[in-house]
Amino acid sequence: MNRKWWHGKVAYQVYPKSFCDSNGDGIGDLKGIISKLDYLKDLGVDIIWLSPCYVSPLADQGYDIADYYNIDPRFGTMADMETLIAEAKKRDIGILMDLVVNHCSDEHEWFKKACADPDGRCGKFFYIEKRRPDGSLPCNWRSCFGGPVWDKLPGHDDLYYLHTFHKKQPDLNWENPELREEVYKMMNWWLDKGLAGFRIDAIINIKKVLPFKDYPADRSDGLSSTASMLKEQTGIGAFLGEMRDRTFKPHNSFSVGEVFDEKPEEIPEFIGDNGYFSSMFDFSETVFGRSPLGSYADSGITPDDYKRCVFQTQWQIGDIGMISNIIENHDESRGVSRYIPEGDVTPTSKKMLAALYFLLKGLPWIYQGQEIGMENISFDSIDEVDDISTIDSYRVARAAGLSEKEALRAVEKSSRDNARTPFQWDGSENAGFTTGKPWLRVNPNYTEINLADQKDDPDSVFNFYRQLTRLRKNPDYQETLTYGRLVPYLEDRHNVMAYLRQSESQSILVMGNFQKEPQILPLPSVPKKILLNNLHDLKLDSENVTLDGYQVIVAEL
Ligand code: TEU
Ligand code: CA
Fold this sequence. Notes:
Elements: E1 11-14, H1 30-35, H2 37-43, E2 47-50, E3 54-55, E4 67-71, H3 78-90, E5 94-99, H4 109-116, E6 128-129, E7 141-142, E8 150-152, E9 160-162, H5 177-192, E10 197-200, E11 224-225, H6 226-232, H7 236-251, E12 254-257, H8 267-271, E13 279-281, H9 284-287, H10 303-317, E14 322-325, H11 335-339, H12 347-358, E15 363-367, H13 388-399, H14 404-412, H15 417-420, H16 451-455, H17 461-473, H18 478-483, E16 485-489, E17 496-502, E18 507-513, E19 519-522, E20 529-533, E21 539-540, E22 544-547, E23 552-556
Helix pairs in contact: 5-7, 12-17, 13-14
Bound molecules: 1-O-alpha-D-glucopyranosyl-D-fructose (TEU) and calcium ion.
The site of 1-O-alpha-D-glucopyranosyl-D-fructose (TEU) has 12 residues, from loops.
């Protein structure tokens, strides 16, 4: 692996709407983020990914962009954005924006022009089709947020446009070189402003299998998830290689792809030395247990399943490149609520999970609030839910025969709103997020879980994350923790997740007891030094260690 400037960095995702509100309108904003840069610096963050803050109707919370060249007034101004980039740079922090180019908003001027003149230049930026001779829609794909991917092109009774996500997110036609030029121009405009790079949204979706055709229906609605089409898709590399050469490469910028459904044999093309992207997220544990029927039918994930998913990815990536490791993001439930068995979610188990994923090979990412151990929220009614995806999942669950209560309980587990509740800064009203009315309910547990309480407590989850970022950057261990190979340890041992990070000169053991009962575990050798321990005691002899429930240790061997 060739060495790159961003190897060894710690990255952090900000969801602007829910991070910090500077003006009391209940919506987080760029000024709010600027006010927290010192906080993020102190946590040990080097790279910040901002979820979209461009002009948008916010039908999908900004993942529906109406103007790529301007900031939505709810988030601030372009001057605020420039200040944020400059202030971050002063602190040696790079800013990534979210590149959403599988689709734009139906309020983007391209789409408006396409409606006015479907055969014109902008009409060709989209997929616009007639019904098939038998009267059916051009294909039977299901949109990610429910219903067919086709909707009537406004103003035209006989024409339909494709949207693989919400109907307010028309897909852009990547087969059209003029569209691609527009995208690269926009990306370079932002990179020239001093962005460190981009996180790239839903990127696998940009390539469609054409001409449009049906796939076997996977639910009673007669539709097929776009996953079947994506499995068959080939040729995306031509677009991604072109994007790399025209944008990222000349800027030496960082890029991380939101890559689902990747084909293992293509990993070197994606994140190898001359890959399309610097990195991509590991979603193997994220998608584990997902049911094609809808999120109500998802199964959970056990500690052993979690371990297997993570190790499988680590094995697959090896030394090809740097994967990006997460336990949550703005599309998922909170990692501590998903990966730690119900009833066992405590500061101790949260720290264990933190150490286990943070020290894997790859780039560690923290999603806002994760560093203080924020948890899932429970809803009293579907009316409290904002997220379009959860609302659709609820509809699907009801249609499958679940009662209102059952449907709500079933879909809230994986609701995207779990991660979108406002950041819990302190124990004051609205958790210190806003002086106004927050756009989304604050998790009522903010009086117990908030940054102010944890900041000066050496035993807090927050300070454990600080220790983790410091360990990763400690010159004595940085080389091994960044480039050292990962070797699973006691791989088949039930409810144990352990691995070695090894370089030529060093071996570091990370070992967690993923259950409440203690376990006596053999050591590979006598530790020279304990680098981290989430509990105060450690029962150790020359051969064994006894780990208490959810205890994790990091040791230099
Ligand atoms: O998410 C993409 C996304 O949700 C899909 O790729 C889906 O999870 C996958 O196909 C399942 O296998 C991104 C954003 O992160 C999300 O917030 C947006 O709603 C979505 O794109 C549309 O822009
Ligand atoms: Ca605001």
